[in-house]
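Task: complex structure prediction.
Instruction: return structure tokens for all chains below.
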Amino acid sequence: MENSSTEILDLSSLPQEKWWTDECLYQVGGFWLMPEVVQSVDRVIKQFKPLSSDIILASFPKTGTTWLKSLLFSIVHRSAKDRLAIESPHNLVPSLEMLVYAKPNQPLITNIPFSTNNQSCRIFSTHIPYQLLAETLNSSECRVVYVTRNPKGRPISMWHFVNKWHFVNKWKKAKEKPWPFEVAVDKFCNGTFPCGPYYDHVMGYKKLSMERPSKIFFVTYEELKNDPKTHVKKLAEFLGYPFEGKENVEEQVEEVVKSCSFEVLSNHKVNKSEESPNWFKVPYNSFFRKGAIGDHENYLCDETIERIDALTREKFHSCGFMY
Ligand code: A3P
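Output:
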């Protein structure tokens, strides 16, 4: 990773829009970022030089990042269940913009951990859209994993996250002035949502997966939920860490799937903790809520479902991506 000095992005020069109460998002390259990450996203884009052995997990917020972090770590390091029992997936797989490049000086991670088969392998996560990160990701043979999730549930997960958890940090006002659900849906649909527009975020990585399937593993939360073992096996092969051995392949896969399941992960003391990591002032347990498919049916009226479905048809279906 390089440590070159770069220009600082001036927030006041960027288009801004309120997304809840008087909190603003800032537009960079067509995407809406929270002010806390504008500079660090800029640093990642300008300074991060991925190694060809790196794995980059990309996602839109609240689409299954925590789950994929635990799966990727388990696939690369095998038998990671003891580590997962004591460490948050977010500490095992650091975020480029939230942690590694959070400070203007030296990037935080300089050592290269060794994987199960003694190859060097670093795993990072990011919410940065492909449109902003294309040059970086294509500058090496690093592999990308992208997870996405049914758009109808996205405003719900974020709405819960904001209203329940952000009161613990500087956004204490969420307690007094909760984010109205209709506003969350509206902001999601018009794109003024952290890292939004969601549809452009997904399409950036989806198009890459259609053009260069060997570069990126594109998977949906729902596919993983419905058939975790098949997808974990495929993911391991894609990453170059296939499950091998004549007899116990199925047991190995089962162990990874089980140790990363919502039920097991969310019950570890570390993941139930109300403490916050020092890089993001929300408690560790805020990353676990329900972990279910179809929760939107409990929240969205028919009209909202039709509104999001129409948007989804318009944005996704032309390229054959169905939701
Ligand atoms: P819900 O709000 O629908 O419950 P992210 O990790 O990208 O922030 O996404 C959080 C969502 O993933 C939350 O969804 C959370 O409950 C769910 N989640 C976290 N860990 C999971 C796991 N191991 N398996 C399935 N879903 C998980």
